[in-house]
Amino acid sequence: MKVAVVAGNPKAESRTLAAGVRLAARLADAEPDVVVDVVTLGAGLLGWGDEAVSAAVEDVASSDLVVVASPTFKATYTGVLKLFLDQFATGTGLQDVVAVPLMVGAGPAHALAPELLLKPVLVELGAYAPAPGLYVRESEHAEAAPYDAYAQRWGAAIRALASGAREQAAV
Questions:
Q1: Whether the Cβ atoms of residue 165 and residue 128 lie closer than 8 Å to each other
Q2: Can you list the positions of beta strands (E) in the chain?
Q3: 79-120 per-position pLDDT tens digit
Q4: CA gap 166, 78 in Å, rounded
Q5: What is the CATH number of the domain that holds 26?
Q6: First-residue to last-residue Cα distance in the chain
Q7: How many domains does the chain have?
Q8: Predicted TM-score (pTM) above 0.85
C-alpha cells in the first residue's frame, strides 16, 4: 500500500506536517512513502505545468492512502493547500485514493472543520473519505493520544479500503 501525506501549511517543516506524518504512520503501520510539504513547491502552484508540482500531484494521485493536513487558518484550510488541490482534475484527480482530512487548530471552536470544509473538496476530486476527519488541537499535536485513538477506531477500515480500492475499481 502506497501512503502519502500532503501538508498545506504556509511554513515548511511545520507542526502540521509532523501531525500528518504521525497520523499516516499510525494508519498504515509504516512511514509514508510520499511526503509533500506543499509550500516548498513555491510559485509553481500559481499556474499549471510546473514539473515539481506535476510530479507531486502524480505521486499523491497514485497513492492508495493520503492524509491531507492543514492548520485551521481563518476558520478553514489554507490557501496554499487550495492551490495544490486545484492541480487535481475534478472528479478523477484522486480517483481510487482513500483520503483522510486532518486539521490542527488552537481550540475546539473549529473541531468540525476537517469534516465540513476539507473532506468535501477531497471527495469532489474523486477520493474515498470513509472516516470522519481528525481535528487535533495545537496543545496536543505532539502527543500520541489523538493519533492513536483515531487509528484504533478507524485504522482497520481505512487500511482495508485503501488496500483494495484500485483492485475493486478495476472489476
A1: yes
A2: 3-7, 34-37, 65-71, 98-105, 134-137
A3: 999 999 999 999 999 999 999 999 999 988 899 999 999 999
A4: 29
A5: 3.40.50.360
A6: 19
A7: 1
A8: yes
